[in-house]
Amino acid sequence: MTVNIDIDGGIAIVTIANPPVNAINAAVRERLLTLAQAFDKDPAIRAVILTGAGALFVAGADITEFDRPVEPPFLPDVVARIERAAKPWVAAIRGAALGGGLELALGCRMRIATGTARFALPEVNLGIIPGSGGTQRLPRVIGIAEAIRVVAENHTLDAAEAVRLGLVDAMVEEPLLPGAIAFVRVALDKALPLPSLDRPLSEPAQEIWTEAEQRIASHAKGASAPLQALEVLKCGIEQGAAAGLARERATFLSLRGSEEAAALRHLFFAERAAMRPADIRGTAPRPVDTAGVVGGGTMGSGIAAALLNAGLSVVLVEQDAAGASRARETLASLFEASQRRGQITGEEVAERLGRLETNIGYGGVERCDVVIEAVFEELAVKRAVFSELGRFCRPDAILATNTSYIDPRLIAEGLPEPERFLGLHFFSPAHVMKLLEIVPTPETAPDVLATVFEIARRLGKIPVRAGICDGFIGNRILRRFRTEAEALVRDGVGIAAIDAAMRGFGFAMGPFEMQDMAGLDIAFLHREAARKRGEPVPDMPGDLLVRAGRKGQKTGGGWYDYAPGDRRPQPSAKAERILAPLMGPRTDMAGEVIVARLMATMAQEGQAILAEGIAASAADIDLVEVHGYGFPRRRGGPMFQLGRADANRV
Ligand code: T1G
Ligand code: NAD
Question: What angle do CA 272, 273, 279 make, to 5 degrees?
Answer without folding.
Answer: 140
